[in-house]
């Protein structure tokens, strides 16, 4: 009898462990190079590759859940599949259907220098768009959404030094991309690395500039003034 109970306890903990593993690896990734026969598509295969890209998508997901401090699957968006397409198109990169990342083979072709690092950074940025909360239908400044994606890229270590502003540069807190990413990094340090995680969590249900005040005790405009003063003295 005691043995049977023990056996059943073992079985149920095994089931728990299995479902935990399932929870971790539930996202499926695919990489499709639709531009193989173009110079950029060939450069993707030669210098970056499907295997590396797939691993990068997986690693980016884990990294983003860490930045957002989403330890529990119920904190996260429910996305089961992410696909990366290398397409023969103009521009850089965009996300469609909330789970498909498209990267321009033409950009890969003409990128001067370390294209692998550049594309890795772009994948961290775009993967953030897949996982971030964006206000549940309420208006959010585009610059904040892009700034959070570049904040993650900054933290990943794949931010380009060549074409990014330095800390303290820019005209408005919600100017977007690198400008807003640097400002968010400042805000994050005021809250021991928890600000962006908490802001993202609040953005699950809505959005207001007042979230900065709620989380940091100062309005976003005052924080921007402090930030500019800190880096421009
Ligand atoms: C992904 O993360 C694993 C574990 O940290 C690491 O061994 C691997 O090199 C990473 N892959 C890429 C493409 O960065
Ligand atoms: C995860 O979240 C759910 C729903 O909020 C909760 O019931 C559960 O206890 C949480 N699990 C952990 C490990 O925190």
TrEMBL record:
Signal sequence, renumbered to the chain: 1-26
Pfam families: BSP (PF04450)
Keyword Signal assigned: yes
Keywords: Signal
Protein name (Swiss-Prot/TrEMBL): Plant basic secretory protein
Lineage: Eukaryota, Viridiplantae, Streptophyta, Embryophyta, Tracheophyta
């Amino acid at each position: 009898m005691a043995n049977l109970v023990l056996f059943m306890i073992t079985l149920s903990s095994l089931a728990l462990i299995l479902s935990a593993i399932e929870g971790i690896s539930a996202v499926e990734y695919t990489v499709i190079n639709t531009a193989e026969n173009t110079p950029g598509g060939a450069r993707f295969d030669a210098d970056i590759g499907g295997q590396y890209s797939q691993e990068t998508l997986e690693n980016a997901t884990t990294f983003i859940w860490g930045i957002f401090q989403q330890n529990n699957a119920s904190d996260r968006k429910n996305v089961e599949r992410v696909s990366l397409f290398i397409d023969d198109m103009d521009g850089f990169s965009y996300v469609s259907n909330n789970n498909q990342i498209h990267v321009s083979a033409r950009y890969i072709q003409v990128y001067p220098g370390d294209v692998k690092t550049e594309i890795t950074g772009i994948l961290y940025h775009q993967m953030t768009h897949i996982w971030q909360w964006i206000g549940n239908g309420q208006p959010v400044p585009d610059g904040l959404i892009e700034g959070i994606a570049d904040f993650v890229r900054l933290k990943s270590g794949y931010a380009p030094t060549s074409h990014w502003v330095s800390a303290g540069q820019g005209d408005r807190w919600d100017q977007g991309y690198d400008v807003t990413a640097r400002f968010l990094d400042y805000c994050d340090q005021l809250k021991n690395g928890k600000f962006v995680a908490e802001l993202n969590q609040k953005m699950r249900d809505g959005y207001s500039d007042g979230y900065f005040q709620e989380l940091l005790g100062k309005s976003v405009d005052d924080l921007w003034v402090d930030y500019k003063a800190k880096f421009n003295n």
